[in-house]
Amino acid sequence: MKQDAQMTNPKPNRTFAVDVEKFPWPASFMIPARIVALTDVVRSCCHPFCLWEAKSDQGTLADARNQVCRGCATVQFYKRHLRAELGQKDVTGSDTRTFIFSIATSPEIIEMHVY
Predict the structure, then answer these.
(1) How many structural domains does the chain have?
(2) In a domain? residue 1
(3) pLDDT at 111
(4) pTM
(5) CA-CA distance, 71 to 86, in Å (whole number)?
(6) 59 domain residue, yes or no
(7) 8 in a domain, yes or no?
(8) pLDDT per residue over 4-14, tens digit each?
(9) Is residue 41, in this structure, part of any structural domain at all?
(10) In terms of residue numbers, what domain contains 106?
(11) CA-angle at 62, arms to 70 and 5, nearest 5°
(12) Could you tell me the pLDDT band of residue 33, with boundaries at 50, 70 and 90?
């Protein structure tokens, strides 16, 4: 198993989310400065709900799975902190409010998980 000396920021091949250009915030809505970073996890997207990582013949499914898992963990981290900033109580166990799908693919296999 290959281990990196340092972990880079996740950059999935595809991110499925609400496009803020097609569904903009209302003109009168002002996002507090402390929340802007939490809503800008994925540039120009709001509420990412699915990340997709694909590998070619040179990559492995395990590499794709690790990368998409890191991306999903990052999105969930920001979603939970955003909910805390908005004053919403955290839950114990599965939090269906912050779920995210992941797709990891290689030339032969497609895996889908829910985090």
Answers:
(1) 1
(2) no
(3) 95
(4) 0.74
(5) 23
(6) yes
(7) no
(8) 444 466 678 88
(9) yes
(10) 14-22+33-87+96-114
(11) 60
(12) confident
